[in-house]
Design brief:
six-stranded mixed beta sheet, alpha/beta, five-stranded mixed beta sheet, 11 strands, about 350 residues
């Protein structure tokens, strides 16, 4: 697979064949299992840890943060094609021609971090209800669910290709929807909202592809990191339920109790321990924390909002998952985050 295949355009998302999906899953699992300890420290068991540390990478580069995707493959494609303002984020590159996000990733000039939640559209409630009718009638591969899963797995195919192409600079975090088995344990919980999304998605993959693909996809999910530490920002799927130390995050994926996994993926509004974000920013980003209140921030998605962003934890936690907007947060290295200009709208 070459980088050029990442933005291969087609009129609609299509499900990969069993052979192609199996090959892709094996490739991305191999990359995740062998990530360089210089940016992904190994856990106490020697397995890939739950933390991605991009602070020590030199030279430091800005970080674009993508909220919950939920089947929005066009959103991720638009991000890769987007051309940022070089003067605002890359003052050292202003003499160069305009560069797309994809080109900047290829050159190692930026990080791209997705907060997770690849499957389960939040914009197609009626389709989920139709899919549920088909499912409960015994049609596990019905038209509505097939369309939903085609979009969701199509997005995740693009996510995996990005990870293969830019392993040091592209990171997709585990969200609470990264649970294809729909099981309860190790921090995961079954999911349903409009229908029986978790159960239906599991059964679709099992019946369309088979147990081998279901297992491989679950293994891929279990290898995803939980927290990114980047210049001027921390990033996880949800607001942290409580303070978690660096070592606790690194060891989280091998902890059978799953306290950290649950605490970084499932936290509801007002469930987080007061002061947890400030304590984590102070531990993980001490070189920025002392500069001023907005010199470093903690970003997450998970809970939907209707505006551009909401501030929690005394203004230090930035919640910015609006499912009806294609928006990203772009965190510069050379200055503090600007709430007026650093949220970028890409489309409808």
């Amino acid at each position: 697979m070459t980088d050029k295949t990442i933005l291969h355009t087609h009129s609609s998302w299509e499900l990969l064949s069993h052979e192609d999906f199996s090959q892709l899953l094996h490739q991305v699992i191999s990359v995740l299992e062998q990530e360089d300890a210089s940016y992904r420290p190994a856990s106490c068991c020697g397995a890939p840890g739950g933390l991605v540390d991009l602070v020590e990478k030199q030279p430091a580069v800005p970080t674009m943060i993508v909220p919950d995707l939920h089947g929005r493959g066009d959103f991720l494609k638009n991000i890769l094609e987007f051309t940022p303002n070089l003067a605002a984020y890359f003052p050292q590159l202003t003499a160069q021609k305009a560069l797309s996000v994809k080109e900047l990733l290829e050159a190692g000039f930026m990080n791209l971090v997705c907060v997770g939640d690849g499957l389960h559209s939040e914009l197609h409630r009626e389709r989920w209800l139709l899919a549920l009718e088909e499912y409960e009638a015994g049609n596990l591969l019905g038209e509505a669910l097939t369309k939903e899963m085609t979009e969701g797995l199509g997005l995740m195919t693009l996510v995996m290709k990005c990870k293969l192409a830019f392993p040091r600079y592209f990171h997709f975090l585990k969200g609470n929807h990264e649970n294809i088995m729909n099981h309860w344990g190790k921090g995961d919980r079954p999911f349903k909202k409009f229908a029986k999304e978790g159960e239906m998605s599991r059964d679709f993959v099992q019946h369309y592809y088979g147990d081998d693909i279901l297992y491989l996809y679950s293994h891929f999910e279990q290898l995803l990191p939980l927290l990114v530490q980047a210049p001027r920002c921390l990033i996880s799927h949800s607001e942290p339920a409580s303070y978690f130390s660096r070592q606790e995050v690194i060891d989280a994926l091998t902890d059978s109790a799953g306290q950290v996994v649950h605490g970084l993926t499932w936290t509801r509004n007002d469930e987080s321990q007061e002061g947890a974000v400030a304590s984590m920013l102070q531990e993980f980003l001490p070189q920025y924390y002392g500069e001023g209140k907005t010199s470093c921030l903690y970003f997450g998605g998970h809970r939907t909002i209707g505006e551009t962003y909401r501030l929690r934890q005394d203004g230090l936690f930035v919640q910015f998952h609006n499912p009806r907007r294609q928006q990203v947060a772009f965190v510069p290295v050379h200055r503090s985050f600007d709430f007026d200009s650093d949220f970028i709208q890409l489309g409808n």
